[in-house]
Amino acid sequence: MRGNWIALGVWGLTRGWVLLLIWLMPWIPYDVQLYEGWYDVLRQGHIPSGDPLWQYPPWSAAPIIIVGLFPGPYLIVFLAFALVIDLVIMLTTLHRRHTSEGAWPGVWLWATAGFWIGPVLLARLDILTAGLAVVALAAMKRPITSSILIAAGLAIKLWPAVLAAAWPRLEVKKRMIVVTLVSFVMLGISNIFWSESMDFLFKQGNRGLHAESVGASPFLLQQLLSGSYDVVERSGTSEIVATGTAIVGLSLSIFGFTLVTTIVLLAWFDKLPSLPKTDIAFIALLVLVTTSRILSPQFYVWLGAVLALALLDRNTRLRPVALLVIGSALLAQYVYPLRTDFPDTDSTLIQLLRVVLLLGACIWALRVVFVSARQQHRVVAGKRNPPG
Q1: Chain mean position to CA 89
Q2: From its phi and psi, is residue 235 left (phi > 0), alpha (psi between -120 and 50) or beta?
Q3: Do 90 and 111 touch, CB atoms closer than 8 A?
Q4: How far apart are CA 8 and CA 150, in angstroms?
Q5: I need a surface site. Which of 17, 47, 239, 266 has the fewest CB within 10 A?
Q6: What is the pLDDT of residues 104-149, one digit of tens each?
């Protein structure tokens, strides 16, 4: 019990640090200001499709509207909303550790997240999908509840789809039916409340190669050596403008999709029995993030939340991966929010080191997957062909 109170105290201190940074650097909650502007459009029944910065599934509108319905300044209400979701994640990890006699590293990882993820933790909508993902994974033994939560996450951001990697083999069909049905119902409701709610699907292809992405690193290095930077601000991100960026971005996305699909199929066909389900879900998410054309700082909110739950399992193989992810997230804070003029020489060097750490984490995690799959293959082959 004492450990729980200490963890909650650390959580409170690091969240206080985040709020202090937001107060000292008023440009940090830029996205919250965007949400406030979209609120006026959304409550009238329209998706702000004319704004190139709106690239979200339709149910992202729901929390934006809910926050606006409360009295008081939008920023203050949003931060309170984010803190509540953040606390839900913290309490879920504590409850999970208690009920499963889990390990403390998962608790400490999230308790200290305000320090190593930084102010983006509370200044974006991503904390909501992270909360839904954590509760869905914690409720994985309840197929209907877990599937509904995953569908809700999908309706706000698409990344919770990778949580399907944690589904038990014999329940895949049942869970897939539930997620599909709930998703269709939610999409139908969104079309009733907000016109043009599916426009986000047609905007994703317009995105280029984000300057902070793994795929952009060779171009950043080349520009660093040549002393010039060819970067353009588009859709709220810094994109590399150079020959070959489209091919690199597309190839990286296809490669990532192939890897994630492979991991999910290995899990579904019971080829990774030695790996905890939460490990598999996190590795799939890490691959998705690492191979994305975009590598925004808020992605660490997703990674941190799922990783915290994975580290609760005493059989996890992700502890070295966790250290690399934390290091990458810490470096990301130098680029954002401290260096808003990215990319310059200093921030480019820090960004390249950040990518090296994240790429190292991804390679380590993939090695865990394929070593486990190979070991399982040998076990099965040994049973089919016993010696003698």
Answers
A1: 14
A2: left
A3: yes
A4: 27
A5: 17
A6: 999 999 999 999 999 999 999 999 999 999 999 999 999 999 999 9
Give the 3-state secondary structure of residue 308.
helix
Q: What is the Cα–Cα distance from 119 to 192, expressed in whole angstroms?
A: 35
Contact criterion met (CB below 8 Å) for 373 and 360 = no
Q: How far apart are CA 93 and CA 113, in angstroms?
A: 13
Q: What's the pLDDT tens digit per position in 311-355?
A: 999 999 999 999 999 999 999 998 877 765 666 778 888 989 999
Burial category of 349 from C-beta neighbours within 10 Å (exposed 0-12, middle 13-18, buried 19 and up): middle
How many Cα atoms occupy the beta-carbon half-sphere of 145 within 13 Å?
A: 9
In a 13 Å sphere around the CA of 137, the CA atoms on its Cβ side amount to 34
DSSP SS3 for 232: strand
What are the CA-CA distances from residue 144 to residues 116, 201, 230 (Å)? 34, 27, 49
Q: Alpha-carbon distance 194 to 38, whole Å?
A: 12
Q: How many H helices and E strands in the chain? A: 15, 2
Residue 351: both structure tokens together: 């960004």
Helix axis angle, 126-138 to 143-156, nearest 10°: 170
Element holding 231 (H helix, E strand): strand 231-234
- Cα(312)–Cα(100) distance, rounded to whole angstroms? 9
Exposed/middle/buried for residue 352 (C-beta within 10 Å: 0-12, 13-18, 19+): middle
CA distance linking residue 201 with residue 346, whole number of Å: 36
* Listed residue (250, 253, 255, 243) closest to 218, CA to CA: 243
Please give the Cα distance from 29 to 17 (Å, whole number): 15
| DSSP, residue by residue, 100-134 | HT--THHHHHHHTHHHHT-GGGTSSTHHHHHHHHH
What is the distance between the alpha carbons of residues 31 and 95, in angstroms, rounded to a whole number?
A: 32
pTM exceeds 0.70: yes
